[in-house]
Amino acid sequence: MTKIDIKALKSEAEKFRGKGKLEKAIELYEQIWDAKAADAKTLQKMAEIYLKLGFKEEGVEAYREAMKGYLDTGFLVQAIAVGKILQELMPDNKEINQEVEELLAKKRGPAIAVPYPVAPPAKAAAPPPPPKPVPEKAETAPAKPEPDQKSKEEWMEPAGEEAEAPAGEKEMPKTETEALAPEPGAIALEPEVSEEPEVEEKSSMDMTLFAGLDEKEFSELYKKLRSVKIPGGIRLCREDEEGNSIFIIASGEVEVTKKDPEGNDRPVARLGPGQFFGEFAYFTGGKRQATVKAMTDLELLEISKDQMDEIVEKYPQVKEGMLNLYKERVLDNLLALSPLTAILPPEDRRKLIEKFELKEAEPGETVVKEGDPGDSMFLIKSGKVEVTTIDPKDKRRLTLARLGSGDFFGEVSLLKNKPRTATITALTPSELMILKRASFETLSQNHPEMMALIEQTIEKRVEATIKKIMGEK
Fold first, then answer.
1. By residue range, what is the domain housing residue 353?
2. Is residue 371 domain-shared with residue 266, that is, in the same domain?
3. Cα(195)–Cα(5) distance, rounded to whole angstroms?
4. Which of 231-240, 358-367, 458-467 is least confident?
5. End residue of a domain, out of 108, 134, 163
6. Is 462 in a helix, a strand, or coil?
7. Residue closest to 302 by CA, chosen among 104, 100, 156
8. Within the chain, what is the greatest distance between any pair of CA atoms?
């Protein structure tokens, strides 16, 4: 019996797929499936082609096998994305909807760092029949979004009324349907590729969002995740604009850029499947810290802050995982940029991060009272606070400053071992990261240069307070 060269078949199938010869491509992919060598990624491509050719039943079956394959090899993010597609394709099929949720709940767990593509999953049914010639209008337009489905403008970061896309860059479609729909009478094509490199992928979100949940809890979280397809070239997030969602990449690649001091965009990272972005604005309720552009067609999972807050309120065990994510991805970045801690080596910064504890404050709550002992410093995770003091001239309360996400306060009393010099009141629901004196003193003893910087910061604040009291600008 002649041995089949799976690698060569994949390469040829990809060439046909890139050129839009989908009937030829599916014939080769089916040979791979017949040989029980179709990994999850190949099965997903087959499903997409079947649907483009008008073979919905075969497409659904390929997606089901792809989801099982991703789960068997530990790629939960990719499996969730495929599960969402299945439920969109068959919204009224209770059997498939139940199968998707139960399978995902039972199989969830920490991701496995294995080469990708992976060994093929066992095939549950005979392969679909070779596709028949496609009728002239065989393509079915993508289903219209449900009335309550968000448009792309609603979940994407707005570009701003005056902003224009750079030359050669696509403008964002008005809706997701427009993003997915091919030109009239044409089949949407993917870039031509000769061979896909094997890339090691790992889903870094699994332990954070999904660990520790039972089947019922996981099912509820799964329902809140939204699957979105984005064509290459679209800017998903823009630096300095508002945002409150985390995006998890199921497939495709994005480029992350930040502006340098001259205002030019500089690449800082490329992210792929299993990785995520948007967490800074998500946690702080503030602005995006970078611009993110789709370098290829993307499949994303999105969860908004409001949706995640509902889960955290109902299942407090998720909160600890989200706090760890905040420390790893946001607090570390804030400490690296802060003049108080920027000089610390990364390993010392990580040790310091572990010492921070979370405190929540309601609007109107006094966080720090003027005259009280000062044994801790604070970093604002989210929310806003007001800094006030008693004016010595007329004994009225004087507002010195309003602070927001990423700002520190309380370090003066901590460093000088003196009573608090001002009162801090929460203006909005706020989350504060607290660092106690013992942890701070251990660090400062090992880094006397940091103390000099803090002294300078204190002097500036004292000068600003005196000017405020004196009525100077």
1. 349-470
2. no
3. 13
4. 458-467
5. 108
6. helix
7. 156
8. 99
- Strand, coil or helix: 327: helix
Contact residues for 148 (Cβ-Cβ < 8 A; gap 6+):
none
Phi/psi at 364 (5° precision): 90, -10
User: What's the mean pLDDT in 368-391?
Assistant: 89
Instruction: Indicate the residue type of 332.
Output: D
Q: Please provide the distance, in angstroms rounded to a whole number, between the alpha carbons at the two ends of the chain.
A: 88
DSSP H stretches of helix in 253-381: 279-284, 305-314, 317-326, 332-337, 346-355
The DSSP element (H or E) to which 267 belongs, if any, is strand 265-271
Chain Cα centroid distance, residue 109 = 19
Helix axes 94-107, 215-224, angle to 10 degrees: 120
Measure the CA dihedral 446/449/452/458, to 10°.
Answer: -70
- The tokens describing 105, both together, are 């709940």
SS (H, E, C) 402-429: EECCCCEECHHHHHHCCCCCCEEEECCC
Whole-angstrom Cα distance, residue 274 to residue 111? 9
Q: Are 172 and 153 in contact (CB under 8 A)?
A: yes
> How large is the angle between the packed helices 56-72 and 40-52, nearest 10 degrees?
160
Residues in the chain: 473
DSSP H or E stretch at residue 83: helix 76-89
The tens digit of pLDDT for each residue in 154-182 reads 333 333 333 333 444 443 333 322 333 33
- Using CA atoms, how far apart are residues 299 and 305, in angstroms rounded to an integer? 20
- Under a CB-based contact definition with an 8 Å cutoff, are residues 74 and 169 in contact? no
Provide the CB-side half-sphere exposure for 411 (13 A, CA): 23
120 is a domain residue: no
The encoded tokens of residue 57 equal: 């039943």
Asked if 152 and 237 count as a contact pair (C-beta separation under 8 A), the reply is no
Q: What is the CATH number of the domain that holds 438?
A: 2.60.120.10
- 75, 108, 141: which is the final residue of a domain? 108
> In the predicted model, what is the mean pLDDT of the chain?
74
Q: Which residues contact 129 (CB under 8 A, 6 or more apart)?
A: 58
pLDDT digits (tens, 9 = 90+) for 286-342: 788 889 999 999 999 998 888 888 888 888 777 777 887 788 778 887 777 776 677
The DSSP symbol for 211 reads T
149 found inside a domain: no
Residues 208 and 324 occupy one common structural domain: yes
Q: CA-CA distance, 13 to 18, in Å (whole number)?
A: 9
Residue 182 within any structural domain of the chain = no
